[in-house]
Structures are given as structure tokens and as C-alpha cells.
Amino acid sequence: MNIDKLKNSILQKMSQEEMDSKISQKIDEASGLIDEKGALMLVAQELNIEIPYEDDEDFDYTISDILEGQRDVEVTGRIVEISSIKEFTKKDGSTGKLASLRIADNSGAIRLTLWNDKADLVADLKKGNVIKIENAFARNWNNKMELNSGSELSIERLDEYDESKYPKIKENYNISELVENLPASIEATVKLAYPLKEFNKKDGSTGCLKSLILEDETGTIRATLWNELANMDINTSDKVKIDGFVKQGYSGLEISINTIEVTEKTDPAQAKKVDNYISIEDLTHYDKELVSVKGKILNKSIVREVEFPDRVAKVQEIKVSDGTGSVRVVFWGNNITKLDDLDEGDEISLTNCKTKKYINRMTDSEVVDLTFTFTSTIELLEKSKVEIKLNSVTDLIEKFNNNELDADDISFGAKVYSSYPTKEFNRYDGSKGMVKSVELSDGDNTVRMTLWDDNTNLEITEGDTLKILHAKIKENNGYYDINTNRYTNIEINPKDLNLVSVRTHIVDINEESKVELQATVVDYRKQDLILNLCPNCKKRLSMVDSNSGIGICEACGEVTPNEVLTATVVLDDGTGTINGRIYEANISKLTGLSIDELKEKNIEALDLAIGNEYIFYGNVTMRNEDLELNIRGIQEFDINKEF
Question: What are the backbone dihedrals phi and psi of residue 634, each rounded to the nearest 5 degrees, phi first?
Fold first, then answer.
């Protein structure tokens, strides 16, 4: 794939800064499991930009760029396998010829099959030659990509080439030198030996499989032993020499073993246990390798879902610190159950997690994530004894103003003052997002909390108490906003959170106070529910034509009105009465009717609320020389919850 050409196509639709930001976002959304090339392709797909796989003569075409069905393939590579010319009898009785060779570059390897007169092209070639193939065609054969010869195929042996583009031909390879679709011999130590597994073959017989994790000084790789080989006595710490075939596995390269020899046997009972844990600050020296670390859990994210082109996967993350630094550890699929009994502050060990190194484009620095794979294990070393101290909303605001807390990592407890409906919005990349706002109070001060995407699924209603861990706070024009993220943990009505009730009586209400009021709806003002407002100045329209739907605004003239549902109800708690002004969704809560049903029934709908008792949340203002409660939230009165 021509990266530069693809970037230029994207830059026709956005700025360099926007493109870099999107690439960084895609890498972050995939928890670092894709590189810049993969992120760039995702961005291009969202913008409906065709991905260029062919280009002019200066395009550096590699084996990994070959696609099924491609014709006139032109590619260079080093010969790593070459056959002799074989003859066979065709159906018509004539003699045919067949030869094959396998070429490799640093992106992979592929076999070329040569038929009849084209088979003679191998006569002057040998293993190790770098050749240029032209006018081949690609096809999928036995689930593997291969090249075939046509009448125009040609092969040229190159005398001058860039040695760094091709793998070296060696008797034994280091693990870091292995290339996909190549046979190879390696000498390594068994880092992990998994138990033997049996499975049923298609013919009804029983097959055997054993997996090993092999390690040398340059890296690690998974190896598989099949059938008779799987029954060999091979254990952790044994040193082995193997011949096999390298292929792309589920989580990277792996090698299927053809022959294996144990060169040094280790007695498991006598094997010395070695502490192979790596300090987190040193993880930047490892990429696509299995490592082990120890540390304390700093944060534990919520479980979220990630959409891929072919599936939806669940993912959960933790941040772990060992004093030298912190690292994100990603758990996919069923592996998230490993975190069920673990809490923040717990000390754990993680073994054989795979490293993924990438560049954080926001800071232009190297970042390493760990992925918990099928080879990984997690162990609780010590349960946390530290209790997180929760701030009240008032303490939170005071400490924030005095710079006495980390604004990017706050924990507090509060009561839900208002809970607004979830809204859907379009992101700049065309995907859908969800957002929900909640107002929280401790009776003296109020903050607004914004929930995004998966967090909007939490069933939060007025009157609930919330324990909120690891959120962010910022000041916005005199208001305080709480933002949640993937590491924010929200507990609804936790048993260990006791908040003093801020409920008051009508007789004690003062102007400009925020109140929680238990009261009964005893009456309502006889006026239309539908209030027609000017969409420009937001003032009430003096007239609306019922036929055309056009309204008259004294300031703006003819406009199409904005319809807002509003009502005034009379509340009584036994100590007095107060008018309560109520809007839209809260009218639905009082009556149990939808917005459309309310518009149809109009003022008569409020008869359904008469005599019912609720908990009301709002702030008190002065209106026409009388106190009025501006109702922000409503909760049905539940005697069991009250107790």
C-alpha cells in the first residue's frame, strides 16, 4: 500500500492536524493493537477514499501488498526455497513440466508456481538469489496466497539491490528474524509449555495439539506441535532446536513445528524459579514480546464494546503502577472475567502479557501497552486495605479552587438532583455517540456531570446516591463540570455511602435555595401546556395561526414557533403550599404520558397527577411576589426506599 499517496488523498479533505488527531484516536480506540498504517486505512474507509495498492514505477511494492485476483503482479524477493523441474503426463498424453520457488521480503513470503516452458526459468536460479518477477497473477490456493505463471511471465535475477529489504538465508534464525510464510530453524528455550489438548478431526479420528512459548535473546514466539509430536515430553525451561514453518497466528507470528529436538533437558522439580519481572519504566525496550510485571492497580475501567468490521468485542482495561511508571493492560473478550474480583489498590502480578509499542501523537513519545492473551496469567499478591476518601460536592469545589486536588482524578459522593434524557449525536467521523447530563448536589452546591457512550446506559434517576471514582472536574463560566471517562467508576446507591438528607419543608423554603421536597400535587394552573416561543429571541409569541402554523413575534416578525411543554402545579406537604413550574420530560413523569399524548390531551392530562405524592428537586425563585419552585427533577415516592 502506498502510504504517502493515501495520506495525500486524505489531506485533500482535512488538515494535517485533523489527520494526525484521527490517526491517534483510532490507535487509542483499538488500545494500541493497530499501527499507523492500519489507523490510516480506517480513516480512509470512513471518508470513502479508495486505498491505492498500485502506483507508478517508484512505488515500493512488497509481497504483503499482493491481493487475490491481481494480474500483472510485479514484485521482487529473495529465493528461500526452489524446486527441481518435474515432468508429468497431461490428459492429452503430452509431457508437461512443473517447478516452484518461494520468495521473501521483509513483509512476508509467497510461492510462485511455474508451468511448462516457464518451469525452465528456474534452471539458472538458486536459493539466495534476489529476483524480479513480472506479469504473474495472484490466486488463493488451499487458503494461502500464491503466484502463478502466465504466458507473459518473466523472471530477472538482480545483481544490484537493497540488502536491507530482504531476509538473510541462514541455517538458524533468531526469533526476531522470522518472516511469515517461510520455513525456518531456531534454537530457543521453552518459556511456557501448555497441557496437551485433544480434538476431533473431520474423519472422526482424534488429533492432538500442544502449544509452546519459545524465547531467545531477541524475542518470543508461539509454537505448535501436532499429533505424534504433541506427545513428546517437553516442559518449561527445556532448550530445543526446531524446524518449522512460520505463519500468521491470531496474535502475531507463530511457527508450526515439523521436527523438534530437546538439546538440554530441565528437571521441573529441580528447575530454579527465576524472577523475570520487568520494571514498567523499561517496557519501552520491548515490542511484540511477552513480558511479566508486578504492581498495584491504579484504575479499573468500565466494560465497553468495540466495533470491528466483522464483530463486536468487549474490552476492559486496568492501569498498573510499580513505582517506576504505569502501564495500561487491555483485557479482551472472556478475559475480562479475570478482573471480576480485583479492585483498585490491589497488588498483582501479570505474566506473559504481550507488549505493543506505538507513538502517542499528542505527546510525540513512545508508549507501551500490555495485552492479556491466552498465554497470560494474573495473580492477586495482596488485597488493598486502603479506603478511598470521598469528597462532598462542597469540599470538591473548595479543594479545586484552592488547587488542593488532582483535577483529572477526583472521587466524591453526591445525590442526583436532576437526570436528563440520553441524547444521540453524530461524531466528526460519522459514527454515533451517546451523551447524558446529570446534576449532583450535597444540599449546598451543585455540579453537572456528563456521561458518554457506555456510561449513559447506567440507570440513574433523581434521588439516587452516587459514589463516583476517577472522574475529572473543570470550571466553566462559574459552573463546575464533571467529566467521566473509561476509568470512571460509578456506583448507584452503594450501601457504604450515607449522605445527609437535604429534604426540607415548604414552610422553611427561602428564595434562591436548592431544595428536595416531598409533596403532593393538589392543583394546577388552568393554562395550555403548549408554550409557543420565538426560535430567535426565545420570547413568547403574541399569536400563532392554527392553519399555517406561522407565529408572530413582536421583535422578530413572522417565525416558525418552537413548541415547549410547560405547566404550573400546586404542591402541598402539610406545612404549606407552593407553585411548581415544570417542563417537558418531567410532565411526562407526573402523568405517565408521552410528549405526543400530552400535546393531544393538553391541560386535561394534569388530572392524572392530582393526589399523587412525589419527591421534587429544584431551585426556588421569586415570581409575581410569590415563591416558586423551578422543578428540575422528579422521583416517585417509594415508602420502601424512604425507610
Answer: -135, 140
